[in-house]
Amino acid sequence: MEESAIFDAVVDIVVGGEYDYYIYDLVPLGHALYYLSMAKVYDEWINRITKLREEMRQHEEMVARIKRQKTTQEDLVLQELQYIKNRINQSSGILTDRQKTAFFFVVVPEEMIILDTQKAAQLFAKFDVPIAGYVVNRVLPSDLAGQDIPAYLQNRIKMQGGYLQEIDKTFGAQVIGRVPELERDVTGLAMIEKLAGLMYGNGRH
Which domain, by its residues, includes 58? Predict the structure, then answer.
C-alpha cells in the first residue's frame, strides 16, 4: 500500500513538469509493471461498463425518483472508474515514453539475480518499457585474486568472474558499466558523487 502511494505521488510530480530530470528507484517487478498491466485491464473493463450504461440510457423512458437516484450513484461509480483508468493510462504513458523515460537495471553477479533480471527484462519488453542499459554492481577487483586474501574471498572472485562473463553474454552491449564493491551503500550526496566519478569519470568521458 505504501509503495503504491509513493508511486502515485511520483506520477503527480512528473506530470507537474517542474524539473528537468526525475530519478526513481523501484523494484523492477513492482508497481511499474502493475500499472502497465492494469491499464489494459481497466481499458477493457470500463469500456464494457460504459457501453452498457449507454445502452441502458437509450432504452430508459420515464424513471422514478428512486431510480434516478440509483442511476446517479451508478454514474458516480463510473466516473470514479474512469478517473482510475485515466490515471493508470497516464502512468503507463510516462513509463513507456521512449523520448522521456529510460530504465536501467542494476545487476549483481549472482545466479538468482541474473535470472530475475532476465525475467524482469522480458516483462518490460512485453509492455514496451524502454530499457536503456544494465549496470553491474558490487564487483570485486580481479587483482585481489593474486594477493594474500582468505580462501572464501578467492572463491568469490572466481565465482564472480564466471557470472560476469554470463552477464556480458546475456545482456551484451547494453551493459553500460561496472561498479566495484564500495565500503558502504550509496546513500547521501558524497557517495552519489563518488559513484558518478567511478561510472562517468566526473563528466570527462
Answer: 26-95
- Distance (Å, whole) CA 137 – CA 179: 5
- Higher-confidence residue of 136 and 97: namely 136
Alpha helices in the chain (DSSP H): 2-16, 31-59, 65-95, 111-126, 151-171, 189-200
Residue 36 maps to a domain:
yes
Question: 114 and 182: one domain?
Answer: yes
- Please answer whether residues 178 and 106 qualify as being in contact, where contact means their C-beta atoms are separated by less than 8 angstroms: no
Q: Are residues 57 and 106 in the same domain?
A: no
pTM value is 0.73
Q: Which residues contact 116 (CB under 8 A, 6 or more apart)?
A: 28, 29
pLDDT in tens, 155-168: 999 999 999 999 99
Q: Quick one: 59 and 149 in the same domain?
A: no
Exposed e or buried b per residue across 172-199, where buried means at least 16 C-beta atoms within 10 angstroms of its C-beta: eeebeebbeeeeeeeeeeeeeeebeeee
CA 126 to chain centre: 13
- Per the structure, how many domains does the chain have? 2
Do 172 and 88 lie in a common domain? no
Are 105 and 131 contacting, i.e. CB atoms less than 8 angstroms apart?
A: yes
> pLDDT value at position 59?
63
